[in-house]
Amino acid sequence: MNDQLKDLRGIFASRIFEIPDYQRGYAWTENHRRDLLNDLRDLAALDARKRHFTGTLVLHRGRHPSRRVLGRTLEVVDIVDGQQRLTTLVVLFAVIVRRLRVLGSNDALGLAQDLSDTYLVLQGTPRLTPHGDTAEFFRDHILGELANPSPRSPPARALHAARAEFEVFLDKRLAGLDDAAKYTSLDDLATLLQTRLGFVLFEVDDEADVGVMFEVMNARGKRLTQFELVKNYLLFAAAKVSSGEALRRLTQVVNQTWSEVVRVLDEAGLSADDDTLLRYHWYIWPHAKGLDGESLWKTHELHRAVKTTIPVSLGEDAVVARVQAYASDLKVAVRAFAALLNPRLPSAFAFAGPRQEALQEAARRVDRMGRRAVVMPMLMASVLTYGGDPTALEEILRLTEVFVFRLLVRGMKSNTGESSLMQLAWHIRTAGLTATAVQAKLKELIGYYAPDASVRAALLVRDGSTPEGNFYERSALPHLLYEYERELVTRKGLKFMVDWGVFYKSWRDSTEHILPQGERCLTDPYWQARFTADAHRRNRHRLGNLVLTAWNSHYSDHDFDRKCGPVSVASTERVYRNGYESERELAAEPSWDEAAIDRRQQRIADFALRRWSI
User: Fold this and answer.
1) Do the Cβ atoms of 237 and 323 come closer than 8 Å?
2) Distances (CA, A) of 279 to 228, 322, 334, 374
3) Which of 265, 350, 417, 548 could pair with 481 as two cysteines, CB 3.0-4.6 Å apart?
4) Is 565 left (phi over 0), alpha (psi -120 to 50) or beta?
5) How far apart are CA 281 and CA 283, in angstroms?
6) CA distance from start to end of the chain
7) Can you tell me the distance from the alpha carbon of 592 to that of 578, in angstroms, rounded to the nearest whole number?
């Protein structure tokens, strides 16, 4: 097999590489890069004649004109498959080149120039260019040496992480060596990379051939993401039923759709969620089918599901119509997906005009509580169907938040209501349900799974030592404390300034136990006089004993009077009287005992049932 493998130097010799827009952005993680580095270590220990099969490289040629650089003609090709690995290796070469230039000897500078010309930049022309906004970051901070990179997109952050990891790798490799030995080590590594990593190389001249080839490769065990497999099957189906100009147009539809999906996901910071998008969209695409009698929402092998729904046996007209319908619907669905998962985007719910901000806030509240898998298809279907009625859509988002919050308060399983919500999502797209009917169904589900009485009972559990009463471990707590603070602030006519993103990153550090959670507090006379060891155990994690704060560590195990501070306390002191409105409310309590915890818990329960009312 070694005779069939192409090495990197031969692959790069006469080519310039571009990554087309329809490919997902750079997404290799530390685990992927660690596997590559381990392969390099293992390969270095083997006979120098041995080559290592590194992967498959599929190139599409003929889409770009060739370029003349320094008297050489270089073919410009798109990387259809293998872009993650090839990009990673270019990043590694860039780090090696930097180390060689630091050494500064004639040999080191000569090798650095040779490697740079071959793998990085030849006379100002990058040898590899990622797509979209990542291209600029790659040029300036991976191939180039501009200082202070601040990657914004997930692909750029992943590239930056790769560079940092390879710098650490080389630092360890070169540690303790003199300059001559460092040069030898870097030369050995560069030689290994260039001559002993073997790729199986495929080159295609027609975009339509890509889908056919990948269908064959997939049947032989080629591992791709569902996002890649679905796109390639659509190209395969197009090539099987059409030809000539009709095939060119359908191929263009598929690739342009994938380009648009990748762009929207990248802008939303959701590059890693492409498979999730396809899955959610499949649940609500009106023509979709499940697999082998499965419910539609239990279908995870979308590649097979798409093949079942758009088989080439349908004939040209039907296949073309379904591919176009699927692509068109996906292009719209990705915007709904991005808006729901990243409502802070300026483009999120832009269709709503003056109600845009209200919809963004409603979506943020849903997203804060998680449980996306159960509610997101229904919400995507609602955005796609009721976008022309922002007020109705806002109410659907509100009721979804109520549904999820109440389930969290009751401690119910994450898939509670899944079947009903998925059927609702499907019927929104296929049965012409009105927004009013959807709202009524959501209210029905809330009343069935989490009626007022059960939610009130869950909020008022008085034994915090039980799973039911320990709100410190309940996933509903951050959202509840955050919204309670908002209520107290807005009730006073003030502007709510607590940033959810900052709060949630360390919400446990922002959650204060008024009665300290550590048993050592019972050595303090104040707490000792009000709580026995058993009472402390029962009350410390109760909802009524937890409050939002910015100064949790400062309060420590202090007694309640010290935490509150005297009425005349300076405004700079870190005490309840100067804290959040939730803390200021505590200062009105004459003492902190079990009765005070009961009262506060009742207040919060009353608020919650108003705030998350049906």
Assistant:
1) yes
2) 13, 17, 11, 12
3) 548
4) left
5) 5
6) 66
7) 18
Angle subtended at Cα 95 by Cα 93 and Cα 98, rounded to the nearest 5 degrees: 110
Nearest residue to 585 (alpha-carbon basis) of 517, 492, 459: 492
pTM of the model: 0.79
Quickly list DSSP for 53-69: EEEEEEEEESSS--EEE
Q: What angle (nearest 5°) sits at the alpha carbon of residue 25, between those of residues 215 and 297?
A: 60
Q: Which amino acid is at 100?
A: L
Please tell me the predicted confidence (pLDDT) of residue 294: 83
Amino acid sitting at position 495: K
Decide if 263 contacts 21 (C-beta within 8 A).
Answer: yes
Q: Are 503 and 482 in contact (CB under 8 A)?
A: yes
> In Å, how far from its chain's centre is CA 257?
20
Number of helices (H), then strands (E), belonging to the chain: the values are 27, 10
Q: Any long-range contacts for 485-490 (C-beta under 8 Å, 24+ apart)?
A: 485/548, 485/580, 485/581, 485/582, 487/607, 487/611, 488/581, 488/582, 488/585, 489/581
Q: How far apart are CA 596 and CA 563, in angstroms?
A: 15
Pair of tokens at residue 270: 């959701």
Residues with Cβ within 8 Å of 333's Cβ and at least 6 positions away in sequence, in order, are 277, 280, 281, 284, 285, 380, 384
Region 566-576: what's the mean pLDDT?
93
Calculate the alpha carbon distances from 525 to 522, 594, 597 in Å.
Answer: 7, 16, 19
Task: Report helix, strand or coil for 6.
Answer: strand
| Among candidate residues 608, 459, 450, the one with its CA nearest the CA of residue 544 | 459
Q: Contact at 8 Å (CB) between 50 and 192?
A: no
pLDDT reported for residue 441: 98
For 157, counting Cβ atoms within 10 Å of its Cβ (0-12 exposed, 13-18 middle, 19+ buried), the class is middle
- CA angle, 154 as apex, 326 and 338 as ends, to 5°? 40
| Digit-coded pLDDT (tens) for 309-348 | 999 999 999 999 999 999 999 999 999 999 999 999 999 9
Torsion of Cα atoms, 260 then 265 then 268 then 270, to 10°: 180
**In residues, how long is the chain?**
614
Contacts 24+ apart (CB under 8 A), 390-394: 390/349, 390/351, 390/352, 390/353, 390/355, 390/356, 390/358, 390/359, 391/355, 392/435, 392/436, 392/439, 393/352, 393/359, 393/435, 394/355, 394/358, 394/359, 394/362
